[in-house]
Design a protein that fits this description.
Shape: globular
Order of helices and strands: HHHH
Helix content: 55-70%
CATH architecture: Orthogonal Bundle
Number of helices: 4
Radius of gyration: 19 Å
């Protein structure tokens, strides 16, 4: 009986530790940013991450088929997409951006800008 209880506790702890160790996104925020503003940036980026999963992941490959990756967009690509999405002139037909508010688009852009990745040359 003690053996079964010990095994059950061990399995429970293993499952619990697995749930708590989900890969968290790291953000690249300048060191001079105050702790309060850093928290605001992270909150906005986390909202953007959730919105990216909902609106963008289907075509841009994040959180699908076991992958936890996002295309390594350049800063220029992010700037161009942000501008065209906000003014509604997206030549690549990102119709999903039309379903999003400007605040939601800003959250996604914040997420893409601040997530820690190896930057590719532009």
């Amino acid at each position: 009986m003690k053996y079964t209880f010990t095994i059950s506790v061990f399995i429970f702890c293993a499952v619990l530790s697995r749930c708590g160790s989900q890969k968290k996104t790291q953000y690249d925020i300048a060191s001079h940013v105050t702790a309060e503003n850093k928290a605001i940036f992270i909150e906005r980026a986390e909202k953007g991450k959730a919105l990216y999963k909902i609106y963008c992941a289907g075509c841009h490959g994040i959180f699908t088929k076991g992958k936890d990756s996002i295309p390594n967009f350049t800063d220029i690509q992010i700037d161009n997409y942000h501008a065209t999405a906000l003014i509604g002139l997206d030549p690549k037909n990102h119709a999903v951006a039309k379903k999003m508010s400007s605040d939601q688009i800003d959250y996604v852009i914040t997420f893409l800008r601040l997530r820690k990745v190896k930057k590719i040359k532009e």
